[in-house]
Amino acid sequence: TWASHYGLPANPQGSREPAAANRGWDKTTGRYESDAQFTRRMTDDVQKVTAKIHEVAGKTPRAWVWPYGAASGSTLTIAKQQGYQ
């Protein structure tokens, strides 16, 4: 990924979980990331890393490996929409 290999605050207790599979928790607002925010974050991530790989390798990648093996149904759908198998 471009930036989803890190952990992000994923609950009010401050636990850090894989960003690719979890909605972020914003302690300032006391809310979880919305579905739309999560989808936008993950879509941007997939697009950025895909563009970089294409720029460097001259080929568009087909396979995607999730950081730490962490993925959710939403992230799998996003990757498929971007052309990954």
TrEMBL record:
<dbReference type="InterPro" id="IPR002509">
    <property type="entry name" value="NODB_dom"/>
</dbReference>
<dbReference type="Pfam" id="PF01522">
    <property type="entry name" value="Polysacc_deac_1"/>
</dbReference>
<feature type="region of interest" description="Disordered">
    <location>
        <begin position="1"/>
        <end position="28"/>
    </location>
</feature>
<feature type="domain" description="NodB homology">
    <location>
        <begin position="1"/>
        <end position="85"/>
    </location>
</feature>
<protein>
    <submittedName>
        <fullName>Poly-beta-1,6-N-acetyl-D-glucosamine N-deacetylase</fullName>
    </submittedName>
</protein>
<dbReference type="InterPro" id="IPR011330">
    <property type="entry name" value="Glyco_hydro/deAcase_b/a-brl"/>
</dbReference>
